[in-house]
Amino acid sequence: MIDLVTFTTNPAAGGDGAASATGYSPPVFGKLLSVNVQYNDDPPATADIALYDEGDPAQELLVFKSNNNSDFRCYPRRPVQSNYDVDLTYDGSRKICDHYIVHGRLKGVLSGANDGDMITFMAWLER
Question: What whole-number distance in Å separates Cα of residue 21 and Cα of residue 112?
Answer without folding.
Answer: 9
